[in-house]
Amino acid sequence: MFEFGRELKRLFRSDGPVDGMTGGDGSLLELLDLTMLRAEARSAVVAAGRISAKDPALRTLEAAGVWRELARRTGDPAALRKAASLAEKAAESFGQMERPRHWALARCEQGRCALIGAELFGDDGLNAAADFAFTEARIAAGGGMGAALADLGRLVIEARGLMGAGDAEAVLGLAYRFEGPLSALRAHGRRHAETRLALAEARRCRADLLAAAGLRLKEPSLLRQALAGLNYDLDTLDPAYEPLSWARAAMLRGGARAGLAEMEGDITEIAAAIADLAEALDHISSDHSPLDWAHGQQTLATALEILGEAADSDRAFDQAVGCYDRALMVLGDQSSLLERANAVYHRAVCLARRAEIACDVQGLDEAEAALRHELASSNAVRDPVGWAVRQLNFARLYQARVGVTGRDRGERAASALALTAALDVFGEHGLRSLADTTQRRLEQLQTQH
After folding, report:
1. Cross-referenced InterPro entries, in alphabetical order (predicted)?
2. pTM, two decimal places
Protein backbone atom coordinates (compact mmCIF):
# COMPACT_ATOMS: atom_id res chain seq x y z
CA MET A 1 0.00 0.00 0.00
CA PHE A 2 2.36 2.71 1.18
CA GLU A 3 5.14 3.04 3.74
CA PHE A 4 3.77 4.18 7.09
CA GLY A 5 6.96 4.60 9.10
CA ARG A 6 8.72 7.56 7.51
CA GLU A 7 5.54 9.42 6.55
CA LEU A 8 3.85 9.08 9.93
CA LYS A 9 6.96 10.23 11.76
CA ARG A 10 6.95 13.36 9.66
CA LEU A 11 3.20 14.03 9.83
CA PHE A 12 2.64 13.02 13.45
CA ARG A 13 5.89 14.17 15.05
CA SER A 14 6.27 14.34 18.82
CA ASP A 15 5.91 18.14 19.02
CA GLY A 16 2.40 17.91 17.57
CA PRO A 17 -0.90 18.09 19.50
CA VAL A 18 -1.12 16.25 22.80
CA ASP A 19 -4.60 14.80 22.15
CA GLY A 20 -4.58 12.51 19.14
CA MET A 21 -2.32 12.46 16.11
CA THR A 22 -4.18 14.59 13.58
CA GLY A 23 -4.92 17.67 15.67
CA GLY A 24 -8.42 17.85 14.20
CA ASP A 25 -7.20 17.72 10.57
CA GLY A 26 -9.65 15.30 8.96
CA SER A 27 -7.53 15.02 5.82
CA LEU A 28 -4.95 13.01 7.80
CA LEU A 29 -7.42 10.33 8.90
CA GLU A 30 -6.88 8.34 5.71
CA LEU A 31 -3.27 7.72 6.71
CA LEU A 32 -4.33 5.94 9.91
CA ASP A 33 -4.92 2.21 9.93
CA LEU A 34 -7.88 0.84 11.86
CA THR A 35 -6.05 0.46 15.18
CA MET A 36 -4.70 4.00 15.00
CA LEU A 37 -8.08 5.35 13.91
CA ARG A 38 -9.82 3.81 16.93
CA ALA A 39 -7.21 5.37 19.21
CA GLU A 40 -7.68 8.71 17.44
CA ALA A 41 -11.45 8.52 17.94
CA ARG A 42 -11.08 7.97 21.68
CA SER A 43 -8.47 10.74 21.95
CA ALA A 44 -10.73 13.17 20.10
CA VAL A 45 -13.51 12.65 22.67
CA VAL A 46 -11.04 13.17 25.52
CA ALA A 47 -9.76 16.37 23.91
CA ALA A 48 -13.30 17.73 23.51
CA GLY A 49 -14.04 17.09 27.18
CA ARG A 50 -10.98 18.84 28.61
CA ILE A 51 -11.67 21.93 30.70
CA SER A 52 -8.77 23.65 28.97
CA ALA A 53 -10.24 23.06 25.49
CA LYS A 54 -10.33 26.38 23.62
CA ASP A 55 -13.61 25.61 21.81
CA PRO A 56 -15.19 22.41 23.20
CA ALA A 57 -18.08 22.48 20.75
CA LEU A 58 -15.72 22.62 17.76
CA ARG A 59 -13.58 19.80 19.18
CA THR A 60 -16.74 17.75 19.71
CA LEU A 61 -17.65 18.26 16.04
CA GLU A 62 -14.15 17.14 15.01
CA ALA A 63 -14.54 14.02 17.18
CA ALA A 64 -17.84 13.24 15.42
CA GLY A 65 -16.01 13.25 12.08
CA VAL A 66 -13.44 10.73 13.36
CA TRP A 67 -16.12 8.36 14.65
CA ARG A 68 -18.01 8.69 11.36
CA GLU A 69 -14.89 7.67 9.45
CA LEU A 70 -14.49 4.66 11.76
CA ALA A 71 -18.09 3.61 11.10
CA ARG A 72 -17.65 4.06 7.38
CA ARG A 73 -14.66 1.72 7.29
CA THR A 74 -15.99 -0.95 9.66
CA GLY A 75 -19.78 -0.82 9.45
CA ASP A 76 -19.92 -0.69 13.24
CA PRO A 77 -23.35 0.68 14.24
CA ALA A 78 -22.04 1.66 17.69
CA ALA A 79 -19.40 3.89 16.10
CA LEU A 80 -22.03 5.48 13.87
CA ARG A 81 -24.32 6.14 16.83
CA LYS A 82 -21.38 7.71 18.66
CA ALA A 83 -20.68 9.98 15.69
CA ALA A 84 -24.31 11.08 15.44
CA SER A 85 -24.49 11.67 19.19
CA LEU A 86 -21.36 13.83 19.17
CA ALA A 87 -22.65 15.85 16.21
CA GLU A 88 -25.94 16.43 18.03
CA LYS A 89 -24.06 17.52 21.15
CA ALA A 90 -21.96 19.93 19.09
CA ALA A 91 -25.10 21.43 17.51
CA GLU A 92 -26.64 21.99 20.94
CA SER A 93 -23.45 23.66 22.16
CA PHE A 94 -23.21 25.96 19.15
CA GLY A 95 -26.86 27.02 19.26
CA GLN A 96 -28.86 27.72 16.10
CA MET A 97 -29.21 31.42 16.90
CA GLU A 98 -25.85 32.02 18.63
CA ARG A 99 -23.48 30.47 16.07
CA PRO A 100 -25.66 29.60 13.07
CA ARG A 101 -22.85 28.73 10.63
CA HIS A 102 -21.19 26.37 13.08
CA TRP A 103 -24.61 24.93 13.96
CA ALA A 104 -25.18 24.30 10.24
CA LEU A 105 -21.88 22.38 10.01
CA ALA A 106 -22.95 20.23 12.96
CA ARG A 107 -26.31 19.51 11.30
CA CYS A 108 -24.45 18.62 8.10
CA GLU A 109 -22.37 16.17 10.16
CA GLN A 110 -25.57 14.62 11.46
CA GLY A 111 -26.83 14.38 7.88
CA ARG A 112 -23.61 12.71 6.73
CA CYS A 113 -23.92 10.15 9.54
CA ALA A 114 -27.47 9.37 8.40
CA LEU A 115 -26.30 9.03 4.78
CA ILE A 116 -23.66 6.49 5.80
CA GLY A 117 -26.22 4.61 7.88
CA ALA A 118 -28.56 4.38 4.90
CA GLU A 119 -25.70 3.16 2.70
CA LEU A 120 -24.49 0.58 5.22
CA PHE A 121 -27.80 -0.80 6.43
CA GLY A 122 -30.20 0.00 3.58
CA ASP A 123 -32.56 2.00 5.80
CA ASP A 124 -34.43 4.46 3.57
CA GLY A 125 -35.70 6.29 6.65
CA LEU A 126 -32.15 7.48 7.30
CA ASN A 127 -32.12 9.14 3.87
CA ALA A 128 -35.22 11.07 4.93
CA ALA A 129 -33.55 12.06 8.22
CA ALA A 130 -30.46 13.20 6.33
CA ASP A 131 -32.57 15.28 3.95
CA PHE A 132 -34.24 17.05 6.89
CA ALA A 133 -30.86 17.76 8.51
CA PHE A 134 -29.38 19.15 5.30
CA THR A 135 -32.45 21.32 4.68
CA GLU A 136 -32.17 22.89 8.14
CA ALA A 137 -28.42 23.35 7.70
CA ARG A 138 -28.90 25.08 4.36
CA ILE A 139 -31.30 27.62 5.84
CA ALA A 140 -29.09 28.36 8.84
CA ALA A 141 -25.79 28.54 6.92
CA GLY A 142 -26.87 31.15 4.41
CA GLY A 143 -23.67 30.60 2.45
CA GLY A 144 -20.14 29.31 2.78
CA MET A 145 -19.02 25.75 3.38
CA GLY A 146 -22.09 24.72 5.38
CA ALA A 147 -24.40 25.69 2.52
CA ALA A 148 -22.26 23.86 -0.05
CA LEU A 149 -22.12 20.68 2.06
CA ALA A 150 -25.88 20.82 2.65
CA ASP A 151 -26.62 21.23 -1.06
CA LEU A 152 -24.29 18.35 -1.94
CA GLY A 153 -25.88 16.13 0.70
CA ARG A 154 -29.36 16.68 -0.71
CA LEU A 155 -28.10 15.98 -4.23
CA VAL A 156 -26.59 12.68 -3.05
CA ILE A 157 -29.98 11.67 -1.66
CA GLU A 158 -31.65 12.52 -4.97
CA ALA A 159 -28.95 10.57 -6.81
CA ARG A 160 -29.66 7.47 -4.74
CA GLY A 161 -33.29 7.67 -5.75
CA LEU A 162 -32.41 7.95 -9.45
CA MET A 163 -29.90 5.07 -9.48
CA GLY A 164 -32.70 2.52 -9.56
CA ALA A 165 -35.20 4.55 -11.59
CA GLY A 166 -35.38 7.48 -13.96
CA ASP A 167 -34.27 8.02 -17.54
CA ALA A 168 -30.98 9.27 -18.96
CA GLU A 169 -32.24 12.86 -19.26
CA ALA A 170 -33.16 13.02 -15.56
CA VAL A 171 -29.80 11.54 -14.59
CA LEU A 172 -27.88 14.06 -16.69
CA GLY A 173 -29.92 16.92 -15.27
CA LEU A 174 -29.12 15.89 -11.71
CA ALA A 175 -25.43 15.37 -12.53
CA TYR A 176 -25.29 18.91 -13.94
CA ARG A 177 -26.78 20.31 -10.70
CA PHE A 178 -23.71 19.13 -8.80
CA GLU A 179 -21.65 21.90 -10.43
CA GLY A 180 -23.08 24.75 -8.33
CA PRO A 181 -22.22 23.44 -4.84
CA LEU A 182 -18.95 21.97 -6.10
CA SER A 183 -17.89 25.43 -7.31
CA ALA A 184 -18.96 26.97 -4.01
CA LEU A 185 -16.94 24.42 -2.06
CA ARG A 186 -13.87 25.01 -4.25
CA ALA A 187 -14.14 28.77 -3.73
CA HIS A 188 -14.42 28.37 0.03
CA GLY A 189 -11.32 26.29 0.66
CA ARG A 190 -9.37 25.41 -2.44
CA ARG A 191 -6.10 25.27 -0.43
CA HIS A 192 -7.36 23.00 2.35
CA ALA A 193 -6.66 19.25 2.04
CA GLU A 194 -9.89 18.37 3.86
CA THR A 195 -11.92 20.42 1.39
CA ARG A 196 -10.16 18.67 -1.50
CA LEU A 197 -11.25 15.31 -0.09
CA ALA A 198 -14.83 16.55 0.30
CA LEU A 199 -14.77 17.67 -3.34
CA ALA A 200 -13.42 14.28 -4.44
CA GLU A 201 -16.16 12.48 -2.51
CA ALA A 202 -18.90 14.63 -4.05
CA ARG A 203 -17.52 14.11 -7.56
CA ARG A 204 -17.34 10.38 -6.90
CA CYS A 205 -21.01 10.38 -5.86
CA ARG A 206 -21.87 12.08 -9.15
CA ALA A 207 -19.80 9.53 -11.09
CA ASP A 208 -21.50 6.71 -9.19
CA LEU A 209 -24.89 8.10 -10.26
CA LEU A 210 -23.81 8.24 -13.92
CA ALA A 211 -22.21 4.78 -13.84
CA ALA A 212 -25.12 3.07 -12.08
CA ALA A 213 -27.65 4.66 -14.45
CA GLY A 214 -25.48 3.84 -17.47
CA LEU A 215 -25.30 0.16 -16.49
CA ARG A 216 -29.02 -0.04 -15.76
CA LEU A 217 -30.11 1.79 -18.92
CA LYS A 218 -27.36 0.23 -21.09
CA GLU A 219 -26.32 3.75 -22.07
CA PRO A 220 -22.58 3.95 -22.91
CA SER A 221 -22.54 7.77 -22.98
CA LEU A 222 -23.38 7.94 -19.26
CA LEU A 223 -20.57 5.52 -18.47
CA ARG A 224 -18.11 7.57 -20.52
CA GLN A 225 -19.06 10.72 -18.62
CA ALA A 226 -18.56 8.88 -15.33
CA LEU A 227 -15.15 7.66 -16.47
CA ALA A 228 -14.08 11.16 -17.53
CA GLY A 229 -14.89 12.53 -14.08
CA LEU A 230 -13.13 9.65 -12.32
CA ASN A 231 -10.02 10.06 -14.45
CA TYR A 232 -9.86 13.70 -13.35
CA ASP A 233 -10.23 12.69 -9.69
CA LEU A 234 -7.47 10.10 -9.94
CA ASP A 235 -5.15 12.69 -11.49
CA THR A 236 -5.75 15.11 -8.61
CA LEU A 237 -5.53 12.59 -5.75
CA ASP A 238 -2.27 11.18 -4.41
CA PRO A 239 -2.52 7.46 -3.49
CA ALA A 240 0.32 7.88 -0.97
CA TYR A 241 -1.41 10.61 1.08
CA GLU A 242 -5.09 10.02 0.16
CA PRO A 243 -5.14 6.22 -0.19
CA LEU A 244 -8.81 5.62 0.52
CA SER A 245 -10.19 8.43 -1.64
CA TRP A 246 -7.90 7.32 -4.47
CA ALA A 247 -8.82 3.64 -4.08
CA ARG A 248 -12.57 4.37 -3.95
CA ALA A 249 -12.38 6.36 -7.18
CA ALA A 250 -10.15 3.73 -8.81
CA MET A 251 -12.53 0.89 -7.89
CA LEU A 252 -15.53 2.80 -9.22
CA ARG A 253 -13.61 3.52 -12.43
CA GLY A 254 -12.67 -0.16 -12.81
CA GLY A 255 -16.28 -1.26 -12.40
CA ALA A 256 -17.57 1.34 -14.87
CA ARG A 257 -14.82 0.45 -17.34
CA ALA A 258 -15.73 -3.24 -17.16
CA GLY A 259 -19.42 -2.46 -17.67
CA LEU A 260 -18.70 -0.31 -20.71
CA ALA A 261 -16.40 -2.97 -22.16
CA GLU A 262 -19.17 -5.56 -21.72
CA MET A 263 -21.58 -3.40 -23.72
CA GLU A 264 -19.01 -2.97 -26.47
CA GLY A 265 -17.90 -6.62 -26.43
CA ASP A 266 -14.24 -5.71 -25.90
CA ILE A 267 -12.50 -8.54 -24.02
CA THR A 268 -9.16 -6.68 -23.98
CA GLU A 269 -10.79 -3.72 -22.25
CA ILE A 270 -12.45 -6.04 -19.72
CA ALA A 271 -9.03 -7.48 -18.86
CA ALA A 272 -7.63 -3.94 -18.50
CA ALA A 273 -10.47 -3.06 -16.10
CA ILE A 274 -9.64 -6.13 -14.01
CA ALA A 275 -6.00 -5.00 -13.88
CA ASP A 276 -7.16 -1.54 -12.70
CA LEU A 277 -9.20 -3.09 -9.92
CA ALA A 278 -6.33 -5.31 -8.78
CA GLU A 279 -4.09 -2.23 -8.63
CA ALA A 280 -6.66 -0.34 -6.56
CA LEU A 281 -6.88 -3.21 -4.09
CA ASP A 282 -3.09 -3.13 -3.71
CA HIS A 283 -3.39 0.37 -2.18
CA ILE A 284 -5.64 -0.66 0.71
CA SER A 285 -5.86 -3.68 2.98
CA SER A 286 -8.54 -5.37 5.03
CA ASP A 287 -6.79 -4.04 8.15
CA HIS A 288 -6.90 -0.45 6.90
CA SER A 289 -10.51 -0.30 5.73
CA PRO A 290 -12.41 -3.62 5.84
CA LEU A 291 -15.53 -2.36 4.07
CA ASP A 292 -13.64 -0.64 1.25
CA TRP A 293 -11.53 -3.76 0.73
CA ALA A 294 -14.60 -6.03 0.73
CA HIS A 295 -16.37 -3.70 -1.72
CA GLY A 296 -13.31 -3.78 -3.98
CA GLN A 297 -13.33 -7.59 -3.91
CA GLN A 298 -16.98 -7.59 -4.98
CA THR A 299 -16.32 -5.11 -7.78
CA LEU A 300 -13.42 -7.28 -8.98
CA ALA A 301 -15.67 -10.35 -8.82
CA THR A 302 -18.26 -8.64 -11.02
CA ALA A 303 -15.59 -7.78 -13.61
CA LEU A 304 -14.34 -11.39 -13.55
CA GLU A 305 -17.88 -12.64 -14.14
CA ILE A 306 -18.12 -10.31 -17.15
CA LEU A 307 -14.87 -11.81 -18.45
CA GLY A 308 -16.17 -15.32 -17.77
CA GLU A 309 -19.29 -14.62 -19.84
CA ALA A 310 -17.37 -12.96 -22.66
CA ALA A 311 -14.58 -15.54 -22.89
CA ASP A 312 -16.61 -18.58 -21.75
CA SER A 313 -14.02 -19.07 -18.99
CA ASP A 314 -14.70 -21.34 -16.00
CA ARG A 315 -11.50 -20.07 -14.37
CA ALA A 316 -12.79 -16.50 -14.35
CA PHE A 317 -15.94 -17.63 -12.53
CA ASP A 318 -13.82 -19.60 -10.04
CA GLN A 319 -11.76 -16.47 -9.35
CA ALA A 320 -14.95 -14.44 -8.91
CA VAL A 321 -16.22 -16.92 -6.32
CA GLY A 322 -12.87 -16.57 -4.53
CA CYS A 323 -13.33 -12.78 -4.43
CA TYR A 324 -16.77 -13.17 -2.88
CA ASP A 325 -15.36 -15.61 -0.33
CA ARG A 326 -12.65 -13.14 0.68
CA ALA A 327 -15.20 -10.34 1.00
CA LEU A 328 -17.44 -12.50 3.20
CA MET A 329 -14.47 -13.48 5.34
CA VAL A 330 -13.88 -9.80 6.16
CA LEU A 331 -17.57 -8.97 6.57
CA GLY A 332 -17.94 -11.88 9.00
CA ASP A 333 -21.30 -12.24 10.70
CA GLN A 334 -22.38 -8.60 10.32
CA SER A 335 -25.75 -9.69 8.98
CA SER A 336 -27.22 -6.18 9.16
CA LEU A 337 -24.77 -4.84 6.57
CA LEU A 338 -26.16 -4.42 3.07
CA GLU A 339 -22.67 -5.13 1.70
CA ARG A 340 -22.73 -8.62 3.22
CA ALA A 341 -26.21 -9.34 1.90
CA ASN A 342 -25.08 -8.33 -1.58
CA ALA A 343 -21.98 -10.53 -1.33
CA VAL A 344 -24.01 -13.58 -0.28
CA TYR A 345 -26.54 -13.02 -3.06
CA HIS A 346 -24.04 -12.40 -5.86
CA ARG A 347 -21.88 -15.35 -4.82
CA ALA A 348 -24.87 -17.65 -5.24
CA VAL A 349 -25.70 -16.06 -8.60
CA CYS A 350 -22.09 -16.59 -9.70
CA LEU A 351 -22.16 -20.27 -8.67
CA ALA A 352 -25.46 -20.79 -10.48
CA ARG A 353 -24.22 -19.09 -13.64
CA ARG A 354 -21.02 -21.13 -13.64
CA ALA A 355 -23.05 -24.32 -13.36
CA GLU A 356 -25.38 -23.16 -16.16
CA ILE A 357 -22.53 -22.49 -18.56
CA ALA A 358 -20.89 -25.84 -17.77
CA CYS A 359 -24.28 -27.67 -17.65
CA ASP A 360 -23.08 -28.94 -14.27
CA VAL A 361 -25.99 -30.33 -12.25
CA GLN A 362 -23.60 -31.52 -9.57
CA GLY A 363 -22.34 -27.96 -9.15
CA LEU A 364 -25.92 -26.80 -8.60
CA ASP A 365 -26.42 -29.56 -6.03
CA GLU A 366 -23.30 -28.44 -4.14
CA ALA A 367 -24.38 -24.78 -4.21
CA GLU A 368 -27.86 -25.68 -2.96
CA ALA A 369 -26.47 -27.90 -0.19
CA ALA A 370 -24.18 -25.09 1.00
CA LEU A 371 -27.08 -22.64 0.94
CA ARG A 372 -29.32 -25.00 2.94
CA HIS A 373 -26.56 -25.45 5.49
CA GLU A 374 -26.24 -21.67 5.84
CA LEU A 375 -30.02 -21.34 6.14
CA ALA A 376 -30.15 -23.99 8.87
CA SER A 377 -27.46 -22.23 10.90
CA SER A 378 -29.21 -18.84 10.70
CA ASN A 379 -32.16 -17.40 12.59
CA ALA A 380 -34.97 -15.89 10.51
CA VAL A 381 -36.40 -14.01 13.50
CA ARG A 382 -33.14 -12.28 14.44
CA ASP A 383 -31.99 -11.79 10.84
CA PRO A 384 -35.03 -11.54 8.52
CA VAL A 385 -33.08 -9.69 5.81
CA GLY A 386 -30.44 -12.41 5.67
CA TRP A 387 -33.21 -15.00 5.42
CA ALA A 388 -34.80 -13.07 2.54
CA VAL A 389 -31.46 -12.85 0.68
CA ARG A 390 -31.11 -16.62 0.98
CA GLN A 391 -34.60 -16.97 -0.54
CA LEU A 392 -33.34 -14.92 -3.49
CA ASN A 393 -30.43 -17.32 -3.80
CA PHE A 394 -32.71 -20.35 -3.74
CA ALA A 395 -34.85 -18.79 -6.47
CA ARG A 396 -31.79 -18.27 -8.65
CA LEU A 397 -30.64 -21.86 -8.14
CA TYR A 398 -34.09 -23.23 -8.95
CA GLN A 399 -34.18 -21.27 -12.20
CA ALA A 400 -30.66 -22.40 -13.08
CA ARG A 401 -31.67 -26.04 -12.55
CA VAL A 402 -34.55 -25.65 -15.00
CA GLY A 403 -32.17 -24.11 -17.52
CA VAL A 404 -29.57 -26.88 -17.15
CA THR A 405 -31.92 -29.89 -17.09
CA GLY A 406 -34.58 -28.52 -19.45
CA ARG A 407 -37.28 -29.87 -17.12
CA ASP A 408 -39.50 -28.14 -14.59
CA ARG A 409 -40.24 -30.38 -11.63
CA GLY A 410 -41.78 -27.67 -9.52
CA GLU A 411 -38.71 -25.43 -9.52
CA ARG A 412 -40.47 -22.47 -11.13
CA ALA A 413 -43.26 -22.54 -8.53
CA ALA A 414 -40.70 -22.84 -5.73
CA SER A 415 -38.75 -19.95 -7.22
CA ALA A 416 -41.86 -17.75 -7.36
CA LEU A 417 -42.70 -18.60 -3.76
CA ALA A 418 -39.17 -17.76 -2.59
CA LEU A 419 -39.16 -14.45 -4.49
CA THR A 420 -42.56 -13.44 -3.10
CA ALA A 421 -41.45 -14.16 0.47
CA ALA A 422 -38.22 -12.20 -0.03
CA LEU A 423 -40.10 -9.26 -1.57
CA ASP A 424 -42.35 -9.03 1.50
CA VAL A 425 -39.34 -8.84 3.83
CA PHE A 426 -37.45 -6.29 1.74
CA GLY A 427 -40.54 -4.10 1.48
CA GLU A 428 -41.16 -4.30 5.22
CA HIS A 429 -37.61 -3.23 6.01
CA GLY A 430 -37.48 -0.43 3.43
CA LEU A 431 -34.71 -2.05 1.35
CA ARG A 432 -35.73 -0.49 -1.93
CA SER A 433 -32.85 -1.65 -4.13
CA LEU A 434 -33.21 -5.30 -3.08
CA ALA A 435 -37.00 -5.04 -3.38
CA ASP A 436 -36.66 -3.66 -6.92
CA THR A 437 -34.28 -6.47 -7.89
CA THR A 438 -36.65 -9.07 -6.48
CA GLN A 439 -39.66 -7.52 -8.21
CA ARG A 440 -37.87 -7.58 -11.58
CA ARG A 441 -36.89 -11.22 -11.05
CA LEU A 442 -40.49 -12.12 -10.21
CA GLU A 443 -41.80 -10.32 -13.30
CA GLN A 444 -39.23 -12.08 -15.53
CA LEU A 445 -40.22 -15.44 -14.06
CA GLN A 446 -43.92 -14.78 -14.71
CA THR A 447 -43.16 -13.67 -18.29
CA GLN A 448 -41.10 -16.80 -18.97
CA HIS A 449 -43.86 -19.00 -17.55
Report:
1. TPR-like_helical_dom_sf
2. 0.83
